[in-house]
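Why do we bother with a discrete structure alphabet at all? Because it lets us treat a fold like text: something you can write down, compare, and reason about line by line. To make this less abstract, here is a complete entry for PEX11 domain protein. Read it the way you would read a sentence in a foreign language you are learning: slowly, and without expecting to understand everything at once.
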Amino acid sequence: MAVKAPHPPTPSTPSPIKQFSNFTRTGAGLEKTLRLIQALATIVIETSIDNETVTTWSTAKSQLALTRRFFRFFNFLDCFERVYALLGSSSSSSAADRLPATLLELGRWTCLGLYFVLEDCTILHAMNVYPVYWNKPVLVEAYKFWFYALALSIVGALWGLLFDSGSTSASAGKKEQDEKKGGSSKERKVGGSGPLMKRIVVDGCDLLIPGVFLGWIQVSEVVVGMAMVGLHEELNQSEASVEEDIRSLKDHIDELHQKMNAIKSKAVS
């Protein structure tokens, strides 16, 4: 007598509350949530005419900014680790063709790491634990490095779109002859340019923050706050698409398990 293997339960889409709980349970998700609240506080401060409201939200904004600094306190380690990896890869013979992109990435992560280091040096001042007179000039230099890092990131993404993607698609076209493989090559090209386009948008929005702080970009704080809100939505959509891909992959794995169990049950019978 054949015994049918029980079908595994079909995973259901988690509720919005569950998704929000999973999102805020991670450090990155909580930091992005605080970023959204800080952006909304910026908009309220700039659009409100009540002095008491402005004072209250200004305090909330400063506290949120300080809290977010704790989440990125050790980010300089990751930046310098990337620099070390890039220096190691640049010594290989195949790195000669990608020398401009490698140099842009080296400059990007070096500047970003220096930004985090300089910002960390002023955190005790921001906490009113150890006030120092050099807080303002150090923060100015830190924001300069942040601006340089974002600018290099945008230039690197544009370089990848204009040159690296073109060379990759050309070599793929030579290797693949039939129409089906050509279609998959096109999909890979679109998939490869998507992260670069998103990087340009995200870093372009982020560029407003140090640019306004340094006085290099003349826009209002409302524009900065709206850019931060839009950036938060863009990041949420990106993470939602990743979660959707993971769920579809799990569904596919469950289907394979069901087929394997069916084959095993037939073999036993």
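What the structure line is telling us, in plain words: Residues 168-190 have pLDDT under 50 and may be disordered. The CA atoms of residues 208 and 224 lie 6 Å apart.
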